[in-house]
Specification:
Largest sheet of chain A: 5 strands, antiparallel
Oligomer: heterodimer
Helix content of chain B: over 70%
Number of strands of chain A: 20
Strand content of chain A: 5-15%
Helix content of chain A: 25-40%
Strand order of the largest sheet of chain A: 9-10-11-12-18
Structural class of chain B: mainly alpha
Number of helices of chain A: 21
Largest sheet of chain B: none
Strand content of chain B: under 5%
Radius of gyration of chain B: 20 Å
Distance between the termini of chain A: 105 Å
Structural class of chain A: alpha+beta
Shape of chain B: globular
Number of helices of chain B: 7
Largest interface: A-B, 39 and 41 residues
Shape of chain A: globular
């Protein structure tokens, strides 16, 4: 900590801009990490046993690494950081074991901490680090001696500055020997180096012998990680030119922030058939709105973020912030980046109190049944050997119009489009009827033993479970010492009664679906909901209110259930249906109201003229 | 602001009516129960009526009932809960609104003639005009009935306010007005509805009083 404090205190060369809009040239020396975790020697490209360069000590020469790793992409392990609006969790799934569980270090309701699920920080990083820019869980120092030894070999997964800031097309995040593969092989120390365009890594810590010591490499250790640098990129002084940019290119963001919507009837939809987000089409880049300074406290862009964000552009970087500006501000801020000020002709103002901007403008056009969505982080998009089947786990439904659970305390909860997963996991009931997940290792051993004959689906979909198998698995967990075991799936909680028979409960909070707001895929105004006619939403068959959201579960009888969209909006069926039905009569209402107004207007005019006639008669002094 | 102003305005109206009732009694029974039944019968039962008269009476009663429903559903959430109208209250409000508009249109046609101002309504005004303008206006030395004039005035005020009251909502249902104008039309609807409600209350009160006086 004192080192971090010192790093934060002293400004380095690249910590502060001098105001030039030109890109700073990065012809820099590459430093390695020393055995004790400090700054090591420079990289020697001619050394066959050369170490990977360390971003902490290479980039950290000019940019305060300690400050940067406190940024939003890396600070999720810090419980002191406000969690903000619930975001996309990491989804661990196992089709044979019936698991699909949202995990996060952030305190988002419905997401479980990885250690609750029995995953150490190292294991969590190895599984999900493929789509992380390093730092965070990858830099946690373990306390267990065995884990300390393992981390000595694998190294920490440092913040990979190149993942975002390397504009070179050779930056390899998801390729055959790229960043994701290195992370999955426990090559944490080598991952950033392997991702850059001028180095390659072979071998892995996982495959190396138990005596492998990265700081005392043995040439005979064939399977150990080995770095090969492209010698041509090193100049006479041993420096390397790197195409580092301040403004992160969109395609760097896309590696972790892409999504794909499978079409209706779960047909795979090719990406080229969908249009870009209108902001990108208009020429903006991701970082035009999602900005940050050295602290990497990047703007997420939701309404109310400025209540806890230190980013000075947070207030003006939401939809409203750019398009409308701050009405209470002392200077106009609307219309930033050329954002048009919306007129919303014919849209009653109550919509803006009840709906997020994204409700009408973002995501795929709502259909009778929300479609399955894939995301980079959930489905490993952009990495090798990805299962491209539409029904591959995890099952993420979108768009589901949910009344937000999280909201700015000064504003009412609004309805917006969300992606949604139905959690499925094995857990135990505590004294307060809460559910804690059973550790993955126990589930694998105990439940895996019971379900050993379950046939995995070739598509990567759920392997179908029968309720009897769930009952047997719960009994096995009881015998394994798990008190009051339960199975959560499809909004149901399965447990054993006192006689040992399986029973189920609906509506337990632990079984509630986890939803996170989706903002992108912004459609142009001409394609927003409500354009042209109100009945796009206000009809008894509108997908917005009456769309059928599938309940997701490996148990067939549960998977056939559906929920209507209004149920996630905390609205009653009668109220929603009656209001939608009333729109049939709305044209009549208009006709009657206008007709009545016309009649009254004519009567007023007629008698007004008569009155005028009487006055004129008097003034003309006729008898 | 609207909440405060509305509460004060409605309170002043009701207190004013109560004071007026006490200070200038219209006659008839003083027992609250029998008085209430008497007033109710004056409104509900057409004593000497043709078929058209009965229809006019029915239309008036439907309009009064719609007004009560609209006033309760419209003012209750705003004045009591401090919220905008929504949910079932709004559905009820929107259901009764066109019926009310229709009744008002019928009343405008059938009652307008009877509510014309005549020289006899305000003899003092005629005398004043004759003195000031030297015009040959018909002289009338009879006293005048203030309640009757105010009754007619409130009728025409109700009819006049009906137009912005209806049109402010109807126009917002078309794809014509942007958000700022939507806010404006909503504000117009709310403020006009307040004045409209007070005018209707006064008109109804005076109608009852005039009926009672006529009976006496």
């Amino acid at each position: 900590m004192p080192v971090l404090a010192a790093q934060k205190a002293a400004k380095l060369l690249g910590d502060e801009s001098d105001g030039s809009r030109a890109h700073p040239l990065h012809r820099i020396p590459l430093y390695t990490e020393s055995e004790k975790g400090g700054k090591g020697p420079l990289v020697d490209p001619n050394d066959p046993l050369a170490m990977p360069f360390s971003t902490q000590f290479t980039c950290g020469e000019c940019h305060s690494y300690g400050t940067i790793r406190g940024g939003w992409h890396f600070n999720y392990v810090d419980s002191n950081v406000p969690s903000g609006r619930p975001g996309q969790p990491w989804l661990y799934f196992d089709s044979k074991l019936g698991i699909q569980v949202p995990l996060s270090y952030r305190a988002w309701p419905g997401a479980h901490r990885p250690e609750q699920f029995g995953l150490t920080a190292s294991e969590f990083t190895r599984i999900f680090g493929r789509h992380m820019p390093g730092g965070g869980s990858g830099e946690i120092t373990p306390t267990d001696p065995e884990a300390i030894g393992a981390q000595y070999a694998s190294g920490k997964l440092e913040v990979n500055c190149l993942a975002c800031h390397n504009a070179h097309p050779g930056q390899d995040q998801g390729g055959a020997t790229g960043y994701a593969v290195q992370v999955s092989r426990n090559n944490f120390r080598w991952a950033a180096t392997a991702s850059c365009e001028f180095a390659s890594v072979r071998g892995s810590v996982t495959d190396a012998g138990p005596t492998y010591d990265p700081f005392m490499p043995d040439e005979t250790e064939e399977k150990a990680p080995r770095v090969s640098y492209d010698k041509k990129v090193f100049d006479a002084k041993g420096n390397v030119f790197m195409d580092i940019v301040r403004e992160v290119p969109d395609h760097r963001c896309y590696y972790c922030h892409s999504d794909l919507y499978c079409g209706e009837n779960e047909q795979k939809t090719e990406k080229w058939t969908a249009d870009e987000d209108i902001h990108l089409t208009a020429g903006l880049t991701c970082v035009d709105c999602h900005r940050n300074g050295l602290d990497h406290d990047i703007v997420r862009g939701y309404e109310g973020e400025n209540a806890h964000s230190h980013n000075e552009t947070a207030a003006t970087s939401s939809c409203q912030g750019c398009h409308l500006g701050d009405e209470n501000g002392n200077r106009p801020t609307g219309g930033r980046l050329g954002a048009p000020v919306p007129e919303h002709k014919g849209i009653p103002a109550v919509h803006f109190d009840r709906l997020t901007c994204t409700a009408c403008h973002s995501g795929p056009w709502p259909t009778e049944k929300p479609v399955l969505a894939k995301t980079s982080r959930a489905h490993r998009l952009g990495t090798i050997n990805v299962n491209k089947e539409p029904r591959v786990l995890p099952h993420v439904w979108a768009p589901v119009f949910v009344k937000e659970g999280w909201t700015d305390p000064n504003r009412p909860a609004k309805i917006g489009p969300h992606k949604m997963v139905w959690p499925a996991f094995w857990g135990v009931l505590d004294a307060n009827d809460g559910v804690k997940p059973v550790e993955l290792a126990v589930v694998t051993k105990v439940v895996g033993g019971v379900l050993r004959n379950v046939v995995p689906a070739p598509t990567g979909d759920w392997s179908e479970l029968k309720e009897e198998q769930v009952g047997e698995a719960l009994k096995a967990l009881t015998q394994a010492g798990q008190a009051k075991p339960v199975y959560i799936t499809g909004g149901m909680l399965y447990e054993l009664d006192e006689a040992g028979a399986l029973k189920s409960r609906e509506g337990h909070p632990a079984a509630a679906p986890y939803a996170w707001a989706m903002a992108h895929g912004v459609r142009p105004a001409a394609q927003s909901l409500g354009v042209g006619k109100c009945t796009v939403c206000h009809s008894t068959k509108s997908p917005f209110f009456f769309g059928q959201v599938g309940v997701d579960s490996p148990i067939a009888s549960v998977a056939s259930l559906v929920k209507s969209q209004y149920e996630f909006q905390k609205a009653s069926h009668a109220r929603t249906w009656f209001f939608a039905f009333s729109f049939i009569f709305r044209p009549w209402f208009k006709v009657i109201a206008i007709g009545a107004s016309a009649v009254i207007g004519i009567v007023l005019l007629l008698y007004g003229l008569k009155a005028l006639g009487s006055v004129a008669k008097v003034l003309s002094e006729q008898d | 602001m609207f909440q405060t102003v509305s509460i004060v305005a409605l309170l002043v109206t009701f207190v004013g009516i109560a004071l007026h009732w006490l200070l200038t009694p219209a006659g008839g029974t003083r027992c609250p129960v029998s008085g209430g039944i008497h007033v109710f019968s004056l409104l509900l039962i057409e004593q000497r009526s043709s078929l058209l008269g009965a229809l006019k009476k029915l239309c008036y009663l439907v309009a009064v009932f719609c007004f009560l429903v609209l006033a309760i559903t419209g003012f209750y959430p705003t004045l009591v809960k401090g919220e905008h109208i929504s949910g079932f209250l709004m559905y009820i409000h929107a259901t009764f609104a066109p019926i009310f508009a229709l009744c008002l249109a019928i009343l405008a046609i059938t009652w307008a003639g009877g509510h014309r101002f005549t020289a006899s309504d305000c003899p003092w005004l005629t005398r004043l005009l004759r003195r000031v303008t030297r015009l040959r206006l018909p002289a009338d030395d009879r006293g005048w009935c203030c309640s009757f004039v105010v009754y007619k005035l409130t009728f025409w005020l109700v009819m006049f306010l009906t137009l912005p009251l209806i049109l402010s909502i109807v126009v917002s249902m078309f794809h014509l007005l942007g958000t700022d104008w939507q806010h404006l039309t909503l504000a117009i609807h709310r403020w006009v509805s307040l004045i409209f409600a007070i005018a209707v209350i006064l008109n109804t009160y005076l109608a009852i009083r005039l009926r009672m006086s006529h009976r006496e």
